[in-house]
Write a structure and sequence with these properties.
- 2 copies of one chain form a homodimer.
- The first copy, chain A, has 14 helices and 13 strands.
- With about 350 residues, the first copy, chain A, is α/β, with parallel strands linked by helices.
- In chain A, the strands form 2 sheets. In chain A, strands 5-4-1-8-9-10-11-12-13 form a 9-stranded mixed β-sheet, with helices on both faces. Chain A has a 4-stranded mixed β-sheet with strand order 3-2-6-7.
- Chain A is globular, with a radius of gyration of 19 Å.
- Chains A and B meet through strand 13, helix 12 and helix 14 of A and strand 13, helix 12 and helix 14 of B.
């Protein structure tokens, strides 16, 4: 704020322009909000709150302010809206369109590693075009959750010099929209994939070679998720490995990846992380890499809580104290002395 | 040595009794010495030095003195004997019997995770009965490499109050000699299994529950190997997770598990580790647990080198400096600050 711009003039201006939103959110996410019907060996929920943007935003809101750009139908329950806004997640860019909300149904097998999709009703999602309002365009952290890469690109086009951009995807787009995916991949800083997607997209069996092939396209960081085996972060500053948190009774893996992304970007936004322009050896020692390692631990911690309950149940109850305790648990799990 | 036992009398006594071996080895291993024919997508070797005891002893000899209790046939090449004795591995308890040495042939598929056994010719192994000489019975560290659990029990019967005993096994014994395996499992301190074996033996899908079920039988420590995903160590002092070292070009996984065991027990023998009798919380803070964590890192480091070459090629050339460098590499891979 400069001396010739008094606070009493500036605030109302922004207020009127942003329809109630006084400040830019720290994080903007574009993705889905849906109603999930999920069956696992441990129970079943019907039309529960789901979607990549919901999981991501609930996770990230533990750390930072988040705004969602998405769409719902007329049937979207007020109670679910309340679950999100109670965490101060900005929903003013979530369009409510005539018709039904996106619905997905799936069943997990006994080991929770394999799932069968029972139905996917896109409904109002077919009409989704991401439109970021002015404050969202200025958000320093941008997450392009798993949707059609053409829509991810449209959202990214509207962002104004974000500090860090991150993208998630899935095999559907790798198989059917490869070129569009490659176009948007080239433009982001961090790519989140699982090991199968990394192999399928690059044709490299080794996840290390696959991560390098993706980084060669432009992204500075590639995070390869390996399910129960944890995650690998590959950057110019070297690899970082984190195991999966040892859960004896995971109940519902739905949304684990989006919760992971929320913990990661939420933490980075809370510490104002920016990736410096430097080469490998210098980057390895740069404080930003220490932040990125911590962010991956937060990502895993938040995801580990998310899968202990159905739908977003665990995320809406999660406290910073619980996160800190499990963060220390991760340290006990992994550290050793020389 | 006591005052009434002059050194000039004692040494020749021991010498004559031990046929050239003046001192107890730090480690005694009973297992196989074999001739392996191995084909991977990266090459092929024929009748190369193999067997669980060979890999283990070469790995452990980087740290401590090792004696092998095993058997070979008349065809066992002098050159292979020389590879072992050059590392001061004691072979005086390796019987040379009429007939052929144990031979195994296998082919690995493109991802190196799946292998097909082409032949298993037990040959002189069918006549193997482990007989530990006096000095070996006094060895403080005992490794029962993967053989028939009845033979493992016979070897263990001969050990006199060892400080630490460790056992490896395989699915064959889980399926066909389950009771004998359980009997010997109950008597050792450390059990080494891979995730599939842990699941098969216990019937628990979760490796954490499986490790607990094995510890409930008696072993203080269970190490679950997860191939490229690393290893989990479960003890009363908590879990310790270590990722697999990121190898872009592994060539031959044969002997990885035995090299892993050799690095683990070799390191513990070199620091004189003993497991204290105490409960979980106190054990977690005890220096012995820090040694055990370091030992698992050494295990992974040595195994990571072993798989970069065919047969025992990498192990016979490996130096402590290379091990230390990769140990530091593991620290960079896994550590984070609070």
């Amino acid at each position: 704020m400069t001396a010739d711009q008094p606070p009493d003039r500036r605030a109302p201006d922004r207020h009127s322009r942003e329809s109630g939103n006084l400040q830019s959110p720290r994080i903007v996410v574009t993705g889905t909000i849906g109603l999930d019907t999920v069956e696992t060996p441990f129970g079943k929920v019907e039309a529960a709150l789901g979607g990549s943007a919901s999981y991501f935003a609930l996770a990230a809101s533990l750390y930072s302010s988040v705004s969602i750009v998405s769409v719902v139908g007329e049937d979207f329950p007020a109670g679910y809206q309340e679950l999100l806004t109670r965490r101060r997640i900005d929903l003013t860019s979530v369009a409510r369109l005539p018709g039904q909300t996106f619905r997905w149904g799936g069943r997990y097998r006994y080991d929770l590693n394999t799932r069968d999709t029972l139905f996917t009703d896109l409904n109002v999602l077919t009409e989704f075009k991401p439109v970021l309002k002015e404050a969202e365009r200025a958000a320093p952290y941008v997450f392009l959750a798993n949707v059609d890469p053409a829509l991810q690109a449209q959202a990214l086009d509207q962002a104004r010099q974000p500090r860090l951009t991150m993208l998630d995807t899935m095999n559907l787009w790798i198989e059917h929209s490869r070129d569009a995916l490659t176009d948007v991949l080239r433009r982001v800083d961090v790519v989140l994939v699982n090991d199968e997607e990394a192999r399928e997209y690059t044709g490299e069996y080794s996840v290390f070679k696959a991560a390098r092939a993706i980084r060669d396209l432009g992204p500075r960081i590639v995070i390869v998720k390996r399910g129960e085996y944890g995650a690998i972060l590959a950057s110019d500053g070297g690899y970082f490995f984190l195991p999966g948190y040892p859960l004896e009774d995971p109940r519902d893996p739905t949304g684990a990846g989006d919760s992971f992304a929320g913990g990661f970007l939420g933490y980075l936004a809370s510490v104002d992380m920016a990736l410096p322009e430097m080469d490998g050896a210098a980057l390895a020692r740069h404080p930003s890499m220490a932040s990125i390692r911590r962010a991956l631990v937060h990502a895993s911690v938040v995801a580990s809580f998310a899968v202990e309950q159905f739908s977003v149940e665990a995320l809406v109850e999660l406290t910073p104290e619980q996160v800190r305790a499990r963060f220390r648990g991760f340290k006990r799990l992994t550290h050793f002395d020389e």
